[in-house]
From TrEMBL:
UniProt protein name: Uncharacterized protein
Listed PANTHER family: ANKYRIN REPEAT DOMAIN-CONTAINING PROTEIN 60, USHER SYNDROME TYPE-1G PROTEIN-LIKE PROTEIN
SMART domains found in the cross-reference section: ANK
Keywords, ordered alphabetically: ANK repeat
ANK repeat residue intervals: 43-75, 76-108, 109-141, 171-203, 204-236, 237-269
Record keyword Ribosomal protein present: no
Pfam families xref list: Ank, Ank_2
Residues in the signal sequence: none
Chain segments annotated as transmembrane: none
UniProt KW Translocase keyword: no
InterPro entries, per database record: ANKRD_45/46/60, Ankyrin_rpt, Ankyrin_rpt-contain_sf
Amino acid sequence: MAAARTSAPSSGKALWEAAYVGRPATVARQLDAGAPVNCRFFTGYTPLAVAAHLGHIRAVRVLLDRGADLEAKNDFGHTPVQDAAANGHGEVVCALLDRGADLEARDSDGCTPLLAAARFGKAKVVRLLVERGADTEASNRFGQDALASWNVSEAARLLGEGVPVAWKAADGNSALNAASIAGHVDAVRLLLDHGADVEATIEGGYTALVVAAGAGAVGVMSLLLDRGAQVDAKIDSGRTALIMAAMYGTADAVRLLLDRGASIEATDDRGLDATAVCSDDEVREVFRDFERIQRWHRRRVVVAWKH
């Protein structure tokens, strides 16, 4: 964060700068001299907000003792506790919460302090906030929860700090499905290892395998099938993973599903099978190859039966 600009009003500039560099004695002197405790500079940061953002706990305590606004938001909608959480300043977070800061305050993107801490991988602050009663089912306006960033090492720490593996976002999307559609094999493996249900569905009946098939995430699909995903499970519209893969033209996904025994004859609620919804030439060639192999096997069976 840059220092305050010279155009800032003089009535609170010295106070703000003292908070910025973490000098509690200077903060106190400026307040004694009449500086406004909630003055704002640099995209709407108050002295308390900038001290919290940078982890200056002693300056934070002085400002709290002098009545600084706990819920003052900057231009991004962040409160002091949100900034402290995002930057991993657990002691500051505790001080603010002890004085009554809103544990579920939301910024312009709908992020709570817990989501802010999770987004930046601040596992100790995540644990602290969970222990303080933070809503572990909260999601931001994009439907993202604390596991949505998919840095695997961070996700592992979050799972270890009590973030629920079956967490669902406001739009019903799950952590497993979000990782599957993004093709993050390691994140999917991590979630499965922590007990995620491989057959869990979200709105529309979508399973992780179906969304991965539509995205062509072959590595994820292979892992899900290895962990017991039903290859011909249908979503609410009757589509299977094979139909989805064919519809979206993901040839490698189609090939994998056929190799794993997916039914080429399965139809959706409109009576359409995977070959009927396919418009991609490469996928059509995969189906033709599959049908040639099937015919060859049938001929061998007939010849063997005749003999």
